[in-house]
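User: Predict structure, ligand magnesium ion.
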Amino acid sequence: MTNVEVEVRGLTKTYGNRAVVADVSFNLSPGTVTGFLGPNGAGKSTTLRMMLGLVEPTAGVTLFGGRAYRDLASPARTVGAVLESGDFHPRRSGYNHLRVIAALAGLDEHPIGGVLATVGLTKAAHRQVRTYSLGMRQRLGLAAALLGNPQVLLLDEPANGLDPAGVAWLRSLLQDFTANGGTALVSSHLLAELSQSVDRVVVISEGRLLADTDLKSLQDGRSLEEAYLALTSGVTA
Ligand SMILES: Nc1ncnc2c1ncn2[C@@H]1O[C@H](COP(=O)(O)OP(=O)(O)O)[C@@H](O)[C@H]1O
Ligand SMILES: [Mg+2]
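Assistant: Predicted complex:
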């Protein structure tokens, strides 16, 4: 796998006259899990959508190995993403959902069994998605993101709906991914959920970048939760 550096440069999104993301820049390095933290409404999902070209930035760019997402030769083989609103056809099975995604992305079907096993959905593969729990839907979204064996993973609130065993499972999945040179960005509004899974954190609040650092520096002798709250409560509307 070729390592892919991700550069986010000056991303800005304005709705009306309100900047929901304001001049956000950070880099993601291969072999690293970066936590993307901030309270609800901070602008995390909007930033991730801009990175993928799903929301047109008012300003700024994101480069994956030097190229914008839309200029990648094979996007699904470079970047896998799970966004918040997983939309699944309720009557389709997990397996068929992945078949459709693979076909749309021009990927062959043979990795489907493999990614289902990776996310622990082998037994549920032929059940309709409407019978899946929130945690199982998160796993299915992750399976879809992994289909192209991407070098970059962008996950929006992936721990949402996972039980503690699921969070531990996600952590080991991310560790395996980055041990092989993968580059990962994982958002959450809860630092505690991610604190054992990430190497670095990028913190935003009200659309602005507040910190881009390793966990130790953020902590600065305090508990991580204290450090995070102190940082994000200092911002007023
Ligand atoms: N299409 C839109 N039009 C207007 N405001 C939006 C739109 N999408 C998001 N917002 C606003 O942008 C802010 C950031 O939202 P979001 O990126 O979803 O934050 P987060 O993911 O950190 O919770 C919120 O106040 C939200 O209401
Ligand atoms: Mg969000």
